[in-house]
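chain below, 92 aa
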Amino acid sequence: MIKHIVVWPMKDDVTDAQKTEMKLRLMALNGKIPQLLNIEVGIDDDNGTMSLTSEFNSDADLATYQAHPEHQDVVAFVKPLVAGRAVCDYEI
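prediction:
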């Protein structure tokens, strides 16, 4: 199983409503992409970050998820809101 973790520092001018919308869009991927087994999203207002933890059966399933049109739509929404991105993928 592959664990995929992403942490985004949010831009300073991002509103709470935008953060909530981003979280909801990410969580809505659950059930839309068959390869996505589990997804959790958290907002840490104290340090201005949002994190995503998701699980897949294989690297191939992760790649399919990343290329999926539903995921790409969320990526287009997320990119203007974030100041960067850190990713950690590992096998469990």
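The chain is about 35% helix and 30% strand. The longest strand covers residues 2-9.
thats it, cya
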